[in-house]
Structure formats: structure tokens, C-alpha cells
């Protein structure tokens, strides 16, 4: 899933976008790529870019013109973007990787392809078409009288500024603009100064072009541009990156017809930069196709006060009797077929510490309808869906601590574990494979059953509640208390993570087919071991019971502090430490950054000895750094007991992920700062607040903390807006539920007449109807607020709604 989240001002509405491309599924008939053996030797990989910034790439797939990539990526996008692009490259050993083709989808078009698979034809990768950004222009016509009395008109063009120009080789560009007056028989060009190291240059330069000449002042009383001239003249603005010793790089262009000044003597507007030639496409060979699946949802998030009524209605759900009449239960009831629909509700309940009472009430309702102890929590009910989502959110670090080391070992050692005679390869020894599988299963099972000290307190609270409810419902069954917990922690949590480690951020890519088969066999075995009815061996059962007792009892088991540190994230970055005498590029060096549950370290290369180690307990703040500090994007700072560590991530998504992971492991530190500096200290001054005291407290509040046992960043307004969108899109079912409540409240006939109500859980129709009416009123008011803000859309040509293409 791609989460696209734009930061926004609370006093005004602003787009907040959820996006979940499940990138490249497969490609077919790739080509042509230069070289005599391209069909036989084509090794390809696929990248994903936001505009011109690469954020992900797949593994290299060998020797196939129809590779199956089968990878998905889940990430938050912390900035606006114009296009989501997929590039297919042919891997080259001795030269630069060669582009095969691309699929580029404008943000406005993503909704067309949302929620379904589509085949896209690959388009050529032309450097002149790889553009992004926008430019702010002003144009006007001025009358001019020369010394000899003749009259003409000059066209004034002012280049004000540009925004969101692309990075060049990962760094801010050195942009300049050329301004040309273009017509059938003329092409006058002028050039701005070069602006250094910025993606948002302010030019503020004005250029004059002579448009017409009159033979004398006395011949005309009005000095308008002649018809044949104005229809054919246009202003063309090209943006370039100054390369000094190499050829300058084209960044984009825009064309504005001079005739636009017929209506107004002054024209001032923002324009989106376009490919060279305004996107004209040349004929090319068939480059193949790419099959993609993506989901795109865009929400407009209103000011916080607008969501208070709906949020309060959801948060009081645990107190509603019966629970089926609550707003939260109604949401889950009308979205039984959509597993992900309850996620925003779960996030809200978690943030406000209301999840445990709600899920306990829902689980009790499910148990009341369960007839046999050995079938509890086996279906995809509202209770199981809520607990599944909770475990994925709260248990993310728990999984990393428990499973990542052994999963890494399995993937890197790559021992064969196939035991199915039908699937054995020639030369395989089934006894050796069985021994390999047993060894892996033992390591995974031991890691799980020894991990109780790492289990998040909230998960323990939920398991304890489930255990109590199961005993109460089936008092004659002494084992039901354990099966109630094991059905979640083994079957729905650990076994699923082993089966698909990439989906739980335990591995960066999907495993190879052979390793995937090994993980499947291990996952099935863990499911069997975790199923209470299958625990036949006394030692295994005793080990499992001890573990289940520890994660679901009232006794808090403290960590011994001897557990191995678990790597949570690592990767290549650019690093600069505060205190260097000389500024500039040479002070930034490539380093391998690594954060574990205990320490942050950087190394010269991956696998090398650490050059610096920082105990995570000593980190006082992890925050973004202004681009102006070092004229670099995607920077963040780690403030600790010594001088700050300044780091540049590879792209905006990587920067966001580093901030999230470091924030999670340090958010509960006792010495965290309340404020931080958004820029650096240089030349005796903090560049952000101009304070000359090096030890001055920060000028901006640090990112707010949340519950220590959750360590989550949850935007309640965004989640409430998602709930509103879900309810609004299923208004028909809400109406059906109201009708069902009304029918049940007044009808006293045979039970068969109420079969139409069976698709909903309605215990008390009057209470449920009352909640539905409250939901209806809240939703109508929220929709009214949306309508008011939709009526005040940004003017065409403004910064938020720039002009695309020529203006006529």
C-alpha cells in the first residue's frame, strides 16, 4: 500500500491522499534494447518514481522478456506530486542500465485505474519528456514612443519563480530560464541568471521584446498589436540545469500565446512545466507491456473541529449496550466484505485508548453465537478483523525483534527444505531436507515462545480479555483459554508474517520461489504447532502453554536485557556531522546507516566496522531539517548528547521511513527535547531563528509523543475522514439497515419475514435505529462542510491549480 499523506494547515481544508499501488506484477514482450543478444540476455528490473524521484526498485529478474515481478510496496508520500511513474530497465554490467520503457500516470488519472489490474503499454523514455515543476510568469504589453516619434509596443515578460524542480543526481539543481518570443519569422531569446543549489529558484527578472512597429506616431490613435502578429506569436519559457562542463539538462518548458493579452493587459499565472514540444510523441517500436494493480483514494481533510461529533460518536461505542447498536459496530457490519474498512476505526480507538473495551464487547458478542469451543475466532468476523489490524499496527516492532533475525538467516542460508516427493528436484535428499526444515521450525518456534517479554502491553491486554471471555463462555473446557489466544498469536500473527515477510517489513523484497516454498512449509508447521488440538507432544505443549500464559496473564514479565539487538532499518545515506569548519559537498560522505533496537550507527560500507555508535537511549530528538540548511532535500537530524548528526536520505519516502523508525525507538526516552532547531548553526548563528547562542533552546516544538506502549503516529482527523468516506460511499446499506430496524421494531409476524434483516447484526432495533439517525445527522453536517470548501476551489492559474499547456 502506498500511503500518500500531505501535511496540511489545520485552519483550512487540504487534500490528504491515500494511495496503494501494488507495483509491478509482470511485464511481457519487453524490448527493443540495443545489443545483438537482447532477447536472450534481457535481465530487467522495475523502478517506481514520484515525478523524477525514484522511491523503490524491484530485484533484477534474469533472462526473460516476460518477467513476473510480483512485488508490492507500501509507503507514505510526504509531498505533493504530479505523476506516478514505473520504469523498466535492462541491467547492464559494463555500462549504465538501459531504459526499456515507462508507464507514467498523472495524479489526476489515478482514480481511473484504482482497485483493479490494468495492462499498460510501455512508452519510450525520452530525456526531454522527463519533467516536473511549475513556473510563475507575468506578461503585459507597453506602448513605446521612440526619439524620432515612431510608436511601437513592447511585450514585458517577468519570470518570478519556479517550484518543485527535479533533483539532479540526487541533489538540488542549478537552474536558469530562457525566455523566447517565437513567431513564423522570428525567435528572440533571452536568459536569466543561474540560481545555485535550489529546486525553488526565485528569479524576479524582467525581459522586453519588441512586438510591432508603427511608421509614425500620427497614423494610429490606438496602438494595438496587429491581428496577423498576435495570432502567431507566443512566449516560450524553458528551464535548464546548468552543468558547467557538460551539456545542460532540460527541465521543462511552457508556452503562452501572446493573444491572451487581448482580454487583459496584464496576465499573471502559474504554469506546469511540459515536455519539450508540449508532449508530442514520436512513433516507436513496441516496447512491451506492464501489468499493474493500484488503489488510490483521495480525501479532503477538514479542520479538526468538523470531525469532533463523528469522532465522539465512534469513541463512545464501547459503552453502548448492546455493542451491535454502536457506531463502530455498524461500520464493521455494513463493510463485512471489505477487510480493510475497519482499519481507520481501529486506529482511532487505539489512539484514544478505547480499543480494548470495544474489542472485548465485540468478542463477547461473537462468543455468544459460537456453539463449539474448538471453532472460536476461526472466521473473518468483526472481532478477528479488529484484532488482526491491531496486531499489525502495535506488533510491528515485536515482529522485527522476534522473527527478523531467523527470517534473515533462512533467506540467506537458502537450504532446501522440500519434503513433497512430487516437488523434489533431481539429486535432492528428502531426509536432509526434512532435517533442514525441522531445524528452521525449531528456531522459529523457539524465537516465538521466548519472546513474551517483548510482547506489547496492549496486545497482552487483549489476549487476557479473550482468555477470560473464552473461559466464561465454555467453563467446562480447560483448554479453550489457550486456544482463544493461540488462534491469534500463532495462526493470525506469527505464521502469516513468516509466510509473507515482505508485507510485514521483515524483508525488503519478496523471497525467491525456493525460499518462498521453505517459508510456506515453516508457516504451515507453525500454524499446526499453534493449533491447540495439534499440540500432542508434551514438551511442545508445555512450552506453548508457558508462552501463552506469559502474554495473557496479569503478571508483567520484565525483559532480562540480554536479548540480541534487532536491526530495524539500514541503508545508504549521505552523512554530515555538525562542527565541520568548511561547508559544501565535500563534507557529505556516503555512509551505511543502521538502526537497531539498541543503537544507531554508521559505517563506511555495509558489513564494515562502525565508525560511530549512538545509544538510542541518548537520542533527544529526530526531526526534519530545512532544505535551506545545506541546500539539500530529504534531510533529517539526530540530536543527541553530542553534536547533531545530519543525514540526507535517498528520497522523500526513505526520509519519512527513517524518521518513523527512529521516532519509534526513541519516543519514550526520558531526555527528549521539547523544541528543536529547524536549520544548522553556522557562522556563529542558528540559521533558523538567528540566535547567536549555540546552546539556545530550539525554535520549533518537537514532534508530539503518544502512548508509550503503542509508539504510534495517528492522525485522528485523517482517520475520521476515512470513516466518513466509507460511510458516505455505502449510504444505500445504511438506509437498508434503517429500514430493517424499523421493520423489526413494528413487525410481530413469523420469523421468516425478517430474513431480509439477516445480513445485519441487529439485537435492539430501537437503539440501533437511534445510532443510525445520529450517524446520518453527523454525516450530513460533514458533507455540508465539504460542499462549502469545494465551492472555494483554487483559481485556475494559481499556485495550487496551475495552468497546463497553452492558454487560448
TrEMBL record:
<dbReference type="Pfam" id="PF00168">
    <property type="entry name" value="C2"/>
</dbReference>
<keyword id="KW-0479">Metal-binding</keyword>
<feature type="domain" description="Ras-GAP">
    <location>
        <begin position="337"/>
        <end position="531"/>
    </location>
</feature>
<dbReference type="GO" id="GO:0005096">
    <property type="term" value="F:GTPase activator activity"/>
</dbReference>
<dbReference type="Pfam" id="PF00616">
    <property type="entry name" value="RasGAP"/>
</dbReference>
<dbReference type="InterPro" id="IPR039360">
    <property type="entry name" value="Ras_GTPase"/>
</dbReference>
<dbReference type="Pfam" id="PF00779">
    <property type="entry name" value="BTK"/>
</dbReference>
<feature type="domain" description="C2">
    <location>
        <begin position="1"/>
        <end position="120"/>
    </location>
</feature>
<dbReference type="InterPro" id="IPR001936">
    <property type="entry name" value="RasGAP_dom"/>
</dbReference>
<dbReference type="InterPro" id="IPR000008">
    <property type="entry name" value="C2_dom"/>
</dbReference>
<dbReference type="InterPro" id="IPR035892">
    <property type="entry name" value="C2_domain_sf"/>
</dbReference>
<protein>
    <submittedName>
        <fullName>RAS p21 protein activator 2</fullName>
    </submittedName>
</protein>
<dbReference type="GO" id="GO:0008270">
    <property type="term" value="F:zinc ion binding"/>
</dbReference>
<feature type="domain" description="C2">
    <location>
        <begin position="131"/>
        <end position="271"/>
    </location>
</feature>
<keyword id="KW-0343">GTPase activation</keyword>
<dbReference type="InterPro" id="IPR023152">
    <property type="entry name" value="RasGAP_CS"/>
</dbReference>
<keyword id="KW-0863">Zinc-finger</keyword>
<dbReference type="InterPro" id="IPR001562">
    <property type="entry name" value="Znf_Btk_motif"/>
</dbReference>
<dbReference type="InterPro" id="IPR008936">
    <property type="entry name" value="Rho_GTPase_activation_prot"/>
</dbReference>
<dbReference type="Pfam" id="PF00169">
    <property type="entry name" value="PH"/>
</dbReference>
<keyword id="KW-0862">Zinc</keyword>
<feature type="domain" description="PH">
    <location>
        <begin position="566"/>
        <end position="667"/>
    </location>
</feature>
<keyword id="KW-0677">Repeat</keyword>
<dbReference type="InterPro" id="IPR001849">
    <property type="entry name" value="PH_domain"/>
</dbReference>
<dbReference type="GO" id="GO:0035556">
    <property type="term" value="P:intracellular signal transduction"/>
</dbReference>
<dbReference type="InterPro" id="IPR011993">
    <property type="entry name" value="PH-like_dom_sf"/>
</dbReference>
Amino acid at each position: 500500500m502506498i500511503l500518500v499523506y500531505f501535511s496540511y494547515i489545520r485552519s483550512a481544508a487540504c487534500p490528504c491522499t491515500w494511495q496503494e499501488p501494488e507495483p509491478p506484477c509482470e511485464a511481457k514482450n519487453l524490448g527493443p534494447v540495443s545489443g545483438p543478444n537482447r532477447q536472450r540476455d534481457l535481465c530487467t528490473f522495475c523502478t517506481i518514481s514520484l515525478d523524477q524521484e525514484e522511491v523503490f526498485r524491484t530485484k533484477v529478474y534474469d533472462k526473460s522478456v516476460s518477467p513476473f515481478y510480483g512485488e508490492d510496496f507500501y509507503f507514505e508520500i510526504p509531498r505533493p506530486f504530479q505523476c506516478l511513474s514505473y520504469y523498466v530497465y535492462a541491467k547492464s554490467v559494463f555500462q549504465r542500465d538501459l531504459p526499456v520503457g515507462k508507464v507514467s500516470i498523472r495524479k489526476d488519472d489515478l482514480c481511473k485505474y484504482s482497485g483493479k489490474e490494468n495492462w499498460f503499454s510501455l512508452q519510450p523514455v525520452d530525456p526531454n519528456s522527463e519533467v516536473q515543476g511549475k513556473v510563475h510568469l507575468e506578461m503585459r504589453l507597453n506602448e513605446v514612443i521612440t526619439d524620432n516619434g515612431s510608436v511601437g509596443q513592447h511585450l514585458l515578460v517577468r519570470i518570478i519563480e519556479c517550484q518543485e524542480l527535479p533533483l539532479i543526481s540526487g541533489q538540488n539543481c542549478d537552474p536558469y530560464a530562457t525566455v523566447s518570443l517565437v513567431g513564423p519569422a522570428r525567435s528572440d531569446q533571452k536568459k536569466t541568471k543561474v540560481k545555485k543549489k535550489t529546486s525553488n529558484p526565485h528569479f524576479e527578472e524582467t525581459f522586453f521584446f519588441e512586438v510591432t512597429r508603427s511608421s509614425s506616431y500620427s497614423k494610429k490613435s490606438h496602438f494595438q498589436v496587429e491581428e496577423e502578429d498576435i495570432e502567431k506569436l507566443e512566449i516560450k519559457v524553458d528551464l535548464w540545469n546548468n552543468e558547467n562542463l557538460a551539456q545542460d539538462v532540460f527541465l521543462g518548458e511552457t508556452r503562452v500565446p501572446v493573444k491572451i493579452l487581448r482580454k487583459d493587459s496584464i496576465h499573471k499565472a502559474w504554469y506546469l512545466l511540459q515536455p519539450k514540444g508540449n508532449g508530442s510523441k514520436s512513433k516507436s517500436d513496441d516496447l512491451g507491456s506492464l501489468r499493474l494493480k493500484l488503489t488510490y483514494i483521495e480525501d479532503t481533510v477538514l479542520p479538526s473541529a468538523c470531525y469532533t461529533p463523528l469522532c465522539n460518536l465512534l469513541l463512545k461505542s464501547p459503552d453502548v449496550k448492546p455493542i451491535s447498536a454502536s457506531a463502530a459496530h455498524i461500520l464493521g457490519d455494513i463493510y463485512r466484505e471489505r477487510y480493510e474498512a475497519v482499519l481507520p476505526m481501529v486506529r482511532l480507538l487505539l489512539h484514544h485508548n478505547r480499543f480494548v473495551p470495544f474489542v472485548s464487547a465485540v468478542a463477547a458478542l461473537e462468543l455468544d453465537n459460537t456453539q463449539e469451543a474448538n471453532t472460536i475466532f476461526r472466521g473473518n468476523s468483526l472481532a478477528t478483523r479488529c484484532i488482526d489490524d491491531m496486531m499489525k499496527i502495535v506488533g510491528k516492532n515485536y515482529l522485527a525483534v522476534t522473527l527478523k533475525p531467523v527470517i534473515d538467516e533462512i533467506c540467506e542460508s537458502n537450504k532446501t527444505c522440500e519434503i513433497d516427493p512430487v516437488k523434489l528436484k533431481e539429486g535432492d535428499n528428502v531426509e536432509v531436507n526434512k532435517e533442514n526444515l525441522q531445524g528452521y521450525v525449531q528456531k522459529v518456534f523457539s524465537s516465538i515462545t521466548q519472546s513474551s517479554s517483548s510482547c506489547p502491553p496492549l496486545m497482552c491486554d487483549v489476549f487476557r480479555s479473550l482468555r477470560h471471555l473464552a473461559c466464561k463462555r465454555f467453563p467446562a473446557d480447560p483448554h479453550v483459554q489457550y486456544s482463544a489466544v493461540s488462534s491469534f498469536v500463532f495462526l493470525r500473527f506469527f505464521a502469516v508474517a513468516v509466510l509473507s515477510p515482505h508485507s510485514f517489513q521483515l524483508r525488503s523484497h519478496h523471497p525467491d520461489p525456493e525460499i518462498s516454498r521453505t517459508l510456506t512449509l515453516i508457516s504451515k508447521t507453525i500454524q499446526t504447532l499453534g493449533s491447540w488440538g495439534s499440540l500432542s507432544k508434551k514438551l511442545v505443549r508445555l512450552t506453548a502453554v508457558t508462552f501463552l500464559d506469559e502474554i495473557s496473564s496479569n503478571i508483567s514479565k520484565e525483559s532480562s536485557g540480554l536479548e540480541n539487538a534487532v536491526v530495524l532499518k539500514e541503508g545508504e545515506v549521505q552523512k554530515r556531522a555538525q562542527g565541520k569548519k568548511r561547508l559544501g559537498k565535500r563534507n557529505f560522505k556516503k555512509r551505511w546507516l543502521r538502526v537497531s533496537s539498541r543503537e544507531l550507527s554508521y559505517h563506511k560500507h555495509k558489513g564494515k566496522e562502525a565508525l560511530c555508535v549512538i545509544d538510542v537511549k541518548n537520542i533527544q530528538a529526530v526531526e526534519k531539517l530545512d532544505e535551506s540548511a545545506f541546500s539539500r532535500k530529504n534531510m533529517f537530524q539526530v540530536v543527541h548528547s553530542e553534536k547533531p548528526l545530519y543525514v540526507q536520505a535517498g528520497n522523500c519516502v526513505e526520509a519519512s521511513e527513517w524518521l518513523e523508525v527512529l521516532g519509534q525507538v526513541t519516543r519514550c526516552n526520558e531526555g527528549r527535547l521539547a523544541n528543536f532547531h529547524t536549520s544548522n548553526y553556522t557562522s556563529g548563528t542558528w540559521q533558523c531563528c538567528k540566535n547567536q547562542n549555540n546552546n539556545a533552546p530550539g525554535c520549533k516544538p518537537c514532534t508530539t509523543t503518544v502512548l508509550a506502549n503503542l509508539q504510534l503516529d495517528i492522525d485522528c482527523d485523517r482517520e475520521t475522514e476515512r470513516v466518513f468516506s466509507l460511510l458516505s460511499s455505502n449510504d444505500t446499506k445504511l438506509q437498508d439497515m434503517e429500514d430493517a430496524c424499523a421493520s423489526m421494531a413494528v413487525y410481530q409476524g413469523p420469523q421468516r419475514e425478517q430474513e431480509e434483516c439477516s445480513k445485519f447484526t441487529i439485537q435492539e432495533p430501537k437503539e440501533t435505529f437511534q445510532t443510525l439517525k445520529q450517524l446520518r445527522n453527523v454525516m450530513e453536517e460533514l458533507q455540508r462542510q465539504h460542499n462549502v470548501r469545494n465551492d472555494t476551489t483554487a483559481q485556475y492559474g494559481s499556485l495550487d491549480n496551475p495552468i497546463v499547456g497553452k492558454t487560448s
